[in-house]
Amino acid sequence: MVSGLRALPYLSAIHDPGTESGVLPPIGYNPKDWVTYVAFMREAAANGQLLQVNPFTTMQQDGRYLLLLQDALGFLCRWTGASPFTVLELSRIPLLALMLLAFWRVTGVVLAERRERVLACWLLLCSGGLEVLLDLAAGGIPPQIRDTVQQDLWHLQGWNTFAASYNPLWLAGLALTFVTVVPLLRPRGPSGWRDVATLAVGIPILSWTHPYSAIVIVAVAAARPVLAWVLGADAPFAGIAGILGGLVPALAVLGAVSRWQRADAVYAIGPQTLPVFWYPVTLGAVGFFAVRGWRRWIVEGCPAWVGVAAWTITVVLLHTSPVLGGYHFVSHLHPPLCLAAASALLPLRDRLRGRPLALAALAVLLFQTPLTLTWKCLREVQDQRIPRSTMRAIDALAPLPPGNVLSPDDVGLYVPAYTPHRVYVGHWFLTPAEPRKAAEAAAALSGLRGPQLVQLVDAERIRYVVAPAISAPLVGLALEGRVGQTLPAGQLTVLVLN
Questions:
Q1: Local structure of 324: helix, strand or coil
Q2: What's the sign of the alpha-carbon dihedral 48, 49, 50, 55?
Q3: Which range marks the domain in which residue 441 is found?
Q4: Cα separation of 209 and 98, whole Å?
Q5: Which residues contact 15 (CB under 8 A, 6 or more apart)?
């Protein structure tokens, strides 16, 4: 059910006939994320290697991006000849299954009763907050705070797992997190060589799949003994030898690889945070029942409470961090809350047997998110149209030999996902100094700054220029006879340089 609902925006996009304003790419969610995944997949499919270059910059680099999920999916494209867009969308199905299996193992460590474990899995996949109420009341929100509210409550932040499952990369990160966090949830912490190996191997694999998930595991491992000591738990430092045995080699390997990577490629973390102020809305009934579940655990002495507490509190601190790009961590808050909420919900559900209306109201309160969010996503996908001229320019570039492209930044965003080329500017995150380079590209492509255009073309080894059709003659004149071929693309023109 979750896979089907999450696929509806994609199916809507690929069956859209297009309008005068443009065509929909085969993307169900957030093109700015999707095109980067597809671009790296396309590169892995082309070269068959683990290490990739950043295709959203023409800077000199030798390829040090290690992205295990994109590499694996790219190799699948290489072997099957399938479109990277299709493979990325279909990857959500097995990744959802793997995530659920991994979470089932987590429930076995934390929850004693099978019915609690099953309920926790339902909560993980289908529960959510009450953002729909603010969506309905959006017209009454003062304009000066409306943008902040909409940004903080945007479903692509991943406030619940159903929302986060739009992104296959997040699903892979959650699945690996659930596998790696198990030793830290045991009542006495990691014990035995298997737990140590899980941390030592799992953390690097997580880091090369979804680095923010690896940060969560490292933070939980560091916080667990401290929290146990502060709260007066029995044997607070039990398992610390296993924690160190897993962390030390993992961090040593990651430190060495990261130092090597940072000597060449561009890595950065965004500053946006998400405040706890929104918890009553974004967590809704799940948050309420999680608090009730925690009360039950404290009274009954749940043996795994220290590990789950460390997991929950750590994620709260991380997603409010102004330094680490807090919004990357918020998708990790929902799973531990589902564990606690299941403990409180099961007795309530038993008491409500024979009261179908009350049970139905509870179900709507907890599980309305898949339907309301899918409806919202189907509307939002219509805002992702690519101008027809941009697609015509991309179609003209696609069969040409690989080279560097100078284009407006809104065109450059899509070029690496559809073609084998690298762009001077195209992505807000992966293009270094993107605002400055976007302005430089716009000025150069106006045709009014000939010497700067020539200097830029030479310095960045530009092979293809995508210019507005109205300024293409001036651009060609400024390039002093270097243009070997001119390919019209509606309101754009592709100039192939000699």
A1: coil
A2: negative
A3: 386-498
A4: 15
A5: none
363 shares its domain with 420: no
Spell out the residues 6+ positions from residue 167 whose beta carbon is closer than 8 angstroms to its own: 29, 30, 33, 156, 158
* The token pair that represents 463 in the structure block: 């092979």
- Count helices and strands (H / E) in the chain: 25, 7
Of 374, 405, 426, the position where a domain reaches its end is 374
What CA–CA distance (Å, rounded) separates 20 from 355? Answer: 53
Greatest extent of the chain over all pairs of C-alpha atoms, in Å: 84
List per-block mean pLDDT (blocks of 10 residues) for the chain, which spans 498 residues: 90 89 90 93 94 90 89 96 96 96 96 93 93 76 76 85 94 97 91 92 94 93 89 80 90 86 56 72 90 85 85 89 75 95 90 86 90 90 92 95 95 96 92 91 87 90 94 89 91 93
> How many folded domains does the chain comprise?
2
Residue in this structure with the two tokens 């997580």, named with its chain if needed = 206
Compute the distance between CA of residue 430 and CA of residue 293 in angstroms, rounded to an integer: 42
Q: Tell me, yes or no, whether 344 lies in a domain.
A: yes
The strand ranges marked E within 107-177 are: none
Q: Are 258 and 204 in contact (CB under 8 A)?
A: no
Q: How far is CA 197 from CA 112, 202, 204, in A?
A: 25, 8, 11
- Strand, helix or coil at 165? coil
Instruction: Check whether residue 245 and residue 184 sit in a common domain.
Output: yes
The reported pLDDT for the residue numbered 270 is: 46
Q: Are residues 112 and 252 in the same domain?
A: yes
> Do 270 and 302 belong to one domain?
yes
Kindly write down the DSSP assignment for every residue of 363-376, as one continuous string.
HHHHH-HHHHHHHH
Q: What is the pTM of this model?
A: 0.92
* Nearest one of 388, 155, 179 to 278, comparing CA atoms: 155
**DSSP code for 489:** E
State how far the Cα of 3 lies from the Cα of 256, in Å rounded to an integer: 38
Q: Give yes or no: residues 414 and 289 share one domain.
A: no
Q: Which one-letter amino acid corresponds to residue 376?
A: K
Q: Are residues 286 and 328 in the same domain?
A: yes
Closest CA to 177 of 113, 90, 99, 231: 99
In whole angstroms, give the CA distance from residue 33 to residue 384: 12
> Among residues 374, 408, 426, which one ends one of the domains?
374
Coil/strand/helix, residue 290: helix
Shared-domain flag, residues 270 and 363: yes
Q: What is the DSSP letter of 138?
A: G
Looking at residue 462, what DSSP letter applies? E
Could you tell me which of 323, 302, 306 has the C-alpha nearest to residue 223? 306
Report the distance separating Cα 203 and Cα 183, nearest Å: 12
Q: Of 94, 42, 44, 37, whose CA–CA distance to 71 is shortest?
A: 44
SS3 (DSSP) at 447: coil
Q: 235 and 107 in one domain?
A: yes
Gyration radius (Cα) of the chain, Å = 25
